[in-house]
Amino acid sequence: MASSDRVDADGASSPADRRREAVIDARLAMLQARFGERWDESQRAQVRSNLARGLELGDSLRRTPLGNADEPEIVFVPYRGEG
Amino acid sequence: MVSDDLSFATVVELGRMLRDGRATPTRLAEHFLERLERVGRPLNAVVNLTPELAREQARQAEAEFAAGVDRGPLHGVPYGAKDLLATAGIPTTWGAAPYRDQVFDRDAVVVERLRAGGAVLVAKLAMVELAGGFGYEQADAAFTGPGRNPWDLEAWAGGSSSGSGAAVAAGAVPFAIGSETWGSITTPAALCGVTGLRPTYGRVSRRGAMALAWTMDKIGPIARTAEDCALVLAAIAGPDPEEPTTADRALAEDPRRDGFRFAMLRGATVGAQPAVAANFEGAVAVLREIGTVEEVDLPDLPFDAAAAVVVVAEAAAAFEEFIVSGRNAGLTAPEDRVGLYGALALPAVDYLRALRVRRLGGRALDEVLRPYDAMAAPTLAAVAGPLTERFSAYFEDNREATLGGAGNLCGLPAITVPNGFGERGLPTGLELMGRADDEHHILAAARAFQARTDWHLRRPER
What we know:
The complex is a heterodimer of chains A (83) and B (462).
Chain A lengths: L14 H21 L5 H22 L21
Chain B lengths: L2 H5 L3 H10 L4 H16 L5 E4 L1 H16 L11 E5 L26 H8 L3 E6 L22 E2 L2 E5 L5 H8 L5 E6 L5 H7 L2 E4 L19 E6 L2 H11 L23 E6 L8 H17 E6 L6 H16 L1 H6 L22 H22 L4 E5 L12 H4 L9 H6 L4 E8 L5 E7 L5 H14 L10
Parallel strand pairs in B: 2-3, 2-6, 9-10, 9-11
Antiparallel strand pairs in B: 1-3, 4-5, 6-8, 7-8, 7-12, 11-13, 12-13
Helix pairs in contact in B: 3-4, 6-7, 8-15, 9-15, 10-12
């Protein structure tokens, strides 16, 4: 663990945690701007929890090293109709 | 045949009865319509019965039999369709209150093919709202109410094809059509003690079925036996020129009764309920009677994370207008009402990364599976939970390695067959997963397993 990622002596969150929370808050703010008036406090908390889960999933995927040549499983075929 | 035997007859048995005169399509239709009303509704398995259509299709089947026309093994056999399959002129609700009055003017391809095969549609069956894609966390997630398990009415039937699983298990339909994005055929089939087949992605046309995740949705049968599942698959599978993800890959045959090569997922029972583990060990002993069994590991790749990202990204896109409009506030499960907002903020690179992992994972998993006919694991770590308990609480102590994430991400076929009973007298399931396009191998293995066991013959007491 990098020294910058160690938990502070008083048990406060690490820089990595704080970065993570900042990303979640930024995504929540974007969604809040669009939909926030629909949510009560518990719904807002659930959306935040789902965002945290989404970030966790993305981080999990990023633990698999991928190179430039690792293409997604997509095959795009330009359409051409009859005639 | 007494009424109860009729209710629990297989498609094969009903086919014999129809051809030797012991039953007529009309009698079967009326029997199962009554059964759905009396037994299916209390299970919250039914959205709408289709009596007019059923009687018309049954009369047509009778006339055709009389004229010497035989459309095949499903001719005259009643079935139920998960209510995400469009049926012309009949509501297709997707299990969701905001869509309860939705009516399409054209049948889904699967419904068309079953009609062409002479099957008789008796009901649209209940499902978890929007196929569970909004993140439901407990059983009460459909406007039809929580799906009840025929083996214990206070237990969940599983989802999202809850009505399909429960109706077959309760003898309310001989077979049903379900769908699976991640677990939605295998879970209700296993929890309700019946047989469910998830075909290879692209084997069955999705046209006319609600889309949850375009690259992960599969449509397949739930029935009493692997043989019945094979017959239904043969009727619904095949290329669809209007659905480009379907391919002209013929269904192969595998007549073997033994000589199978099985892989067994290492660590599959760690964290499973004791009876699930014991039943799996018992099932493996049967697999050793019909072949060889070797322990293997899944490739070390984030299959579950990739599958989760693909599902939420595609579901959020498929339902973007629905979410933005605010109509999602009308969903039944409170968590579903806000379920996919977060996915609207998912970075595109994360979705694409999941697809890149899919490519790597599909090839790595195929390499692992190549020497084998099927990989075996418990379908689920636990029996059905109580209706009132949240999934996170119930499954907290039961998290074993499963094939669901890897199999669904990579579009692989799987079949679940009943392999015993566990806590609270509820069924457990054995899953056999195959390589892409290996439905014939897993069906043959499942048939051979069911020739040596009788779990699939058990009936709940209703």
